[in-house]
Design brief:
By secondary structure, this protein is α+β, with helices and mostly antiparallel strands. The chain is built from 5 helices and 10 strands, in the order ββββαββββαβαβαα. The protein has a domain of about 120 residues: VC0467-like (3-Layer(aba) Sandwich).
Length: about 180
């Protein structure tokens, strides 16, 4: 029997053959991965929704704040908000990903961001990607995903349209050279 290997703090890079419209050409940061399942946030699917509008919809006053895009974090509970952020800080609900990065889903972090008291770096998403026990491992075995250790510079600093290629390049893979045909030798 294979020993469980967590993919927490790894990128899942959709292979060109992954046709599921929820994940085609996506990069998903795995926030938590245990034997019971996995949870992640897609970092390169901006919604047609800005941070100002989201804050206004949640009755949070917007001050002088950049109107950053809000991302579709995944197809599960896409009415629920998540903030990927650094540094960790002291928020009501935070899942620690690394000693510097966490994901929070409580209102206090949004209020702090709106009041310019929030984390230095952040990405706001609605919804998440979720996998049941063994599901992600099965998808990995089917070559749906390429995984590599995550780099915060990709989700915080890299232009959105470049994140899929940048994540693959961080694993030493040029997605342009991969065939879109699947097969086994």
């Amino acid at each position: 029997m294979n020993e469980f290997q967590s993919l927490s703090n790894h990128f899942l890079i959709a292979m060109p053959t992954l046709a599921d419209p929820n994940f085609h050409k996506t990069v998903t940061l795995v926030c938590e991965h245990t034997a019971e399942g996995a949870m992640g946030l897609t970092i390169n699917r901006p919604l047609d929704l800005g941070l100002h509008e989201l804050l206004e919809q949640t009755d949070i006053a917007v001050r002088d704040l950049p109107d950053l895009p809000v991302f579709l974090g995944g197809p599960v509970q896409n009415n629920r908000g998540f903030v990927l952020h650094a540094p960790l800080g002291q928020w009501e609900t935070t899942l620690t990903i690394t000693d510097k990065v966490g994901v929070s889903s409580s209102r206090d972090i949004l209020e702090a961001i709106a009041g310019k008291q929030g984390p230095e770096q952040y990405l706001v998403a609605l919804g998440y990607a979720g996998w049941g026990a063994g599901q992600l491992e099965h998808e990995m075995a089917e070559n749906s995903w390429l995984s590599t250790p995550a780099k915060s510079s990709i989700y915080f600093d890299t232009p959105i349209k470049e994140r899929w290629q940048a994540a693959a390049q961080s694993a030493g893979v040029d997605l342009n050279t991969l065939s879109s045909e699947a097969g086994h030798a």
